[in-house]
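Ticket reopened. Same input as before:
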Amino acid sequence: MQNSSVDTVLRQSREAFLSYRNRTGAQKAKFLEAIAAEIEGLGDPLIRTAMTETNLPEARLVGERGRTTNQLRQFAAMVAEGSWVEARIDTAIPDRTPLPKPDLRKMMVPLGPIVVFGASNFPFAYSTAGVDTASALAAGCTVVLKAHPAHPKTSELVAGAIAKAISKCGEHPFVFQHVQDSSFEAGKQLVQHPLTKGVGFTGSFSGGKALYDYAAARKEPIPVFAEMGSINPVFILPGALKARSEKVAELYAASITQGVGQFCTNPGLLLSMETPELKSFTQQLAGKIREVAPATMLHPGIAENFVKNRGKALKEKGVTLIAESATPAQTNQGIPTVASVQAENFLVNPALVEEVFGPYSLLVVARTREELFKALDAIPGQLTATIIGEEDELKEYADFIRLVSDRVGRVIINGVPTGVEVCPSMHHGGPFPATTDSRFTSVGIDAAKRWVRPVSYQNFPHDLLPPELQNQNPLGIWRLVNNSWTK
Ligand code: NAP
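Engineering reply: fixed in the latest deploy. New output:
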């Protein structure tokens, strides 16, 4: 992509923003609903195209398309209702002493053009009309989408659906623009263009961190919301292994290998204590892993990385292979693998907390409870952590669970981290290096908060105020007026 075309795209995006930012909640809701309907209207050819480009099975893609359209409709409902702008009104007290109080009103306003990088592992839900695009459009921002080169035709089809929705709803044609260019240089230019006001990304640590650094090096730094993956530690407490090791093994063999392990919530690290039950658990897990056949990964680059990173991880000091699939892997397939290491080796080797993206998990064996606590300290910020424990021991480990919560965005008790529910109370984020900003989520309606900033309007002529802040509350939204919640 030429420098000049990046400039044209961002100028067009800015031009569209000047009108789109004034669209009412009802107009944006109609637009987001229309995108969802147009995506559904693409029907089977969209699913077939994505199957060919990503090697993902039909059922998974049909489910992911449903998640994507549901996501768009959740944002539509949010903007139609309107309270999400967080309107606050503090009316003037001219005769207050010693100083009069001015009239002050505040609400969230959109940032401007947002550059979104489509993800390889979710061709719908985190790509062209995925959560970053949907949340930015809901917030009143315009979007420049850099398609992921692993599924260009899928991306093109979805971009076509958005274009149809734009035309049906009479939106500015450059509210959404689709860019296909598989060069890092194009991504850098998009992030560094002065008219870009924010960036959304899901992918590797190296990719997300590079984009974050490009943004920080700009004359005007801008926020980059990068979700960069996670190893999602699972702490398996001794009581649970005593009571139900086979069930836990079954649950985890399925979670580790689900979708060939290509989820940012894949459980890449299991931690437990050396007990007689751990031995049987290890054997049971090994047995289940051997039964799962290798499967084709998203694209050859991801498969190559998996082979390389798995090989490197297995060569680290003290790491031993517990089991791999009994079926040999073909080209571009990811082979289900579990390995183990003693906590004493884990504690001194930062390489063991690096993500091996694919069906791989490392079991860390602590000799004592203290060693388990220390292992927690060695794990950097994560999207999720899971505790598997019996009711009584969960109470006994309450302090430990609080420490676990300090370094993740979601804590799961007696479940698996894979499977991210799309609903308002989901937080999909976490302390660095899981993301570049732990305060925000990339799943659920709160994802729109990434693309807005607060503005206070002091002593404004009433007619110039946004409708959300006018006295008569024309939109009928919840507002904090003189410290009381009113509608
Ligand atoms: P990626 O390498 O992070 O790339 C994602 C997007 O970011 C692509 O559009 C890519 O540009 C762009 N990008 C990456 N590095 C860049 C840089 N230095 N400068 C400018 N743009 C850059 O992810 P991927 O291609 O999907 O997969 C590669 C590896 O990422 C996988 O093997 C896996 O380890 C990891 N991954 C992790 C997750 C997760 O959720 N944890 C998800 C997906 C991938 P181009 O279009 O020019 O290539």
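Residues 3-228+438-486 form a domain with the Aldehyde Dehydrogenase; Chain A, domain 1 fold (CATH 3.40.605.10). Residues 164 and 243 are 56 Å apart (CA to CA). Please confirm and we'll close it.
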